Amino acid sequence: EVGKQPDFDVNKAENLYQEGLKAFKRGALIKASTLFEEVVHLYPENYKAWGNLGNCYALLGDTQQAIRSYKKALALEPGYEFAKRNLSMVKKCSKDELMARGVLGALTAILHDADEKKRGMELDVWKEIDEQRKDY
Length: 136
Hints:
Elements: H1 7-26, H2 29-42, H3 47-59, H4 63-76, H5 81-92, H6 95-117, H7 125-132
């Protein structure tokens, strides 16, 4: 079929998408955005990757790229509530507020991950943050 990418590209895109979700959940926003960029390069019809890329950009303070990504997701899937809701939020929030949400989300993810690993042990928050910084 003309214009259809090979299956291996779709499989690679799905693997990268899953890695991007994991990175996002860990608070590694730059890594997640890079992975989602690769996904949309390989499989530009993946509206969910566009939506998650929008979230990365929003939380990194790049509102223009966030808006562009959400609009692309909605062009592909007009009923995609995730993108509609987040596009609306990005338009209402200041860049500083979005970045503060990103920092808070990253810290929460780091601390949750550390807590999962070291439940019941004394936790050195700053050490945990330093260990996670390599993913940014």
